[in-house]
Design brief:
- By secondary structure, this protein is of the alpha+beta class.
- It is built from 1 helix and 5 strands; from the N terminus they run E-E-E-E-E-H.
- The chain has one helix spanning about 70-90, and strands at about 25-30, 35-45, 45-50, 55, 60-70.
């Protein structure tokens, strides 16, 4: 494909676009697709013992977003992220 044949790419955010912070991710992969489910953990109010030490009794894991990908895209993301990490190590 010559440069004149490459279509112009326009990037815009959808109306429901959002940015999230995640504490972790559940990952599933099968031969056809991959799934990433991002979550955050919220600890309930700690209980105090007789010495005043805090003890966490429960954690609520809130699933934020699930992303489904083709297996090929899943592999491409892993490769790209690994390359980015290796580049950062050299800095």
């Amino acid at each position: 494909m010559t440069p004149s044949q490459i279509p112009k790419l326009t990037i815009e955010k959808s109306e429901d676009f959002k940015q999230i912070f995640a504490d972790g991710v559940y990952i599933w992969l099968n031969p056809d697709s991959g799934t990433l489910t991002f979550f955050i953990d919220a600890m309930d109010t700690p209980e105090l013992d007789e010495n005043g030490a805090a003890r966490i009794t429960s954690v609520k894991r809130k699933l934020l977003v699930e992303i489904r990908l083709t297996s090929m895209l899943y592999d491409n993301i892993i490769t790209w992220m690994t390359q980015q990490k290796e580049t950062l190590k050299k800095i």
